From TrEMBL:
Residue intervals of the Luciferase-like domain: 19-335
InterPro entries: Bact_Lucif_Oxidored, Luciferase-like_dom, Luciferase-like_sf
Protein source organism: Pseudoclavibacter endophyticus
Protein name: LLM class flavin-dependent oxidoreductase
GO cellular component, one term: cytosol
Gene3D superfamilies tied to this protein: Luciferase-like domain
A UniProt-annotated Pfam family: Bac_luciferase
Gene Ontology molecular-function annotations: oxidoreductase activity, acting on paired donors, with incorporation or reduction of molecular oxygen
């Protein structure tokens, strides 16, 4: 079974499919932290040069999986190194911030980037990391539900009203301890930068449709099957198009997937290199869970070839990866693919070459293939 071309939105004569870069900014064996930051900034510049739409950066704490505990700091550096690529924190874990402080940092970052910021938000996927800040999972959820609406309203209005503790309701400044705050640092984009929400929870999709979010549904080797993604992508893209038509939205909504990518010079080299890199990356991915003695995410990872066969990784030569991506997009119905090109033991040079091959040799084939319906 495949998704008919008619179910994928077209712009003019071209399929409305976009590509971005996703980065955990994970540790690389034998590379210093300073060199890692410098290498990733060069990667962002190269992604811009190659025409990727945006650069997504994850937030993690006290783990080799993520060396950007403050995405805003790294994205501020990236903003001054680039001029066109959009910069998406994916995500700001909002329960870990004072809401006023994060509102001001978001606004400042949007100004520094010339209006290229995009905001991913969430309550965080790791209860272990939340615990480092004195929060359990329920407290993190409650804080997200309480603070994020107030933050979004402040970005729109230029006035921050702190919610009362234990509620999702702003106090309106009725108490001396919490008067409204007029903001003199406002985002460049109005009413606010575009919003992203990463999720694998289908129940959140109706809310994300009505509230104007773009969605990343599933991450790499922990993603749901393509047929599950297709079901939710179809609903999201259809209903968001209806919502956006009524408010004259600036552009199409994105429903995307994140995939680890390695495009090698040939299939054999790609598989060999990716297998070693994935083992290192998975060790970082499971670090906190293993340290906590948790059984979650600590079992052995499936064999690389099995992950590729299940469309959870894109690995191979350029023609092979083009076929993998075309199949995954056609079967899932997504209109956005964010590729992770730097992970595990991949060197800066390997990541850059992989990204170059993807942009120059894979993306054109994917676009061409999707513009012609598959014949069974």
């Amino acid at each position: 079974m495949h998704v008919p071309l008619s179910s994928l939105r077209l712009e003019g004569d071209h399929l409305d499919l976009d590509f971005g870069v996703f980065d955990w900014l994970d540790a690389q064996p034998g590379v210093t932290l300073r060199d890692t930051y410098d290498a990733r900034l060069r990667l962002v510049r190269e992604a811009e040069r190659l025409g990727f739409a945006r650069y997504h950066l994850a937030e993690h704490h006290a783990t080799p999986l993520g060396l950007a505990p403050s995405p805003a700091v790294f994205l501020a550096a990236a903003a001054r190194e680039t001029s066109t690529i959009r910069l998406a924190a994916t995500t700001f874990i909002t329960p870990l911030y004072d809401p006023l402080r994060l509102v001001e940092e978001i606004a400042m970052l949007d100004q520094l980037s010339g209006g290229r910021l995009e905001i991913g938000v969430g309550r965080g996927s790791s209860p272990i990391e939340a615990g480092m800040f004195g929060l359990d999972a329920e407290a993190a959820k409650a804080r997200f539900l309480r603070d994020w609406p107030a933050m979004l309203d402040a970005l729109r209005s230029g006035r921050f009203v702190r919610p009362r503790e234990g509620t999702g309701v702003a106090d309106g400044g009725s108490t001396a301890a919490s008067p409204p705050v007029d903001l003199f640092v406002r985002p460049l984009q109005t009413p606010h930068p575009p919003l992203w929400y990463p999720t694998s929870n289908a129940e959140s999709i109706p809310r994300l449709v009505t509230e104007g979010y773009h969605v990343l549904f599933g991450f790499g080797f922990s993603s749901p099957p393509l047929e599950v993604m297709r079901e939710h992508a179809t609903v999201f893209l259809r209903e968001s198009a209806e919502v956006d038509a009524s408010v004259a939205a600036a552009g199409p909504r994105r429903f995307g997937m994140v995939r680890h990518v390695y495009v090698g010079r040939d299939d054999a080299e790609a598989v060999e290199t990716a297998r070693e890199a994935l083992a290192v990356h998975y060790d970082s991915f499971t670090h906190l869970w293993r340290a906590a003695g948790s059984e979650r995410f600590t079992g052995p990872l499936d064999d690389l070839e099995d992950l590729v066969d299940r469309h959870l990784l894109f690995v191979g030569s350029a023609p092979t990866v083009a076929e993998q991506v075309t199949h995954a997009v056609r079967e899932s119905g997504v209109n956005y693919v964010a590729g992770a090109f730097a992970w595990g033991s991949l060197s800066e040079q390997q990541s850059a070459r992989s990204m170059q091959r993807f942009a120059r040799e894979v993306m054109p084939i994917v676009h061409a293939g999707l513009e012609h319906p598959k014949v069974d």
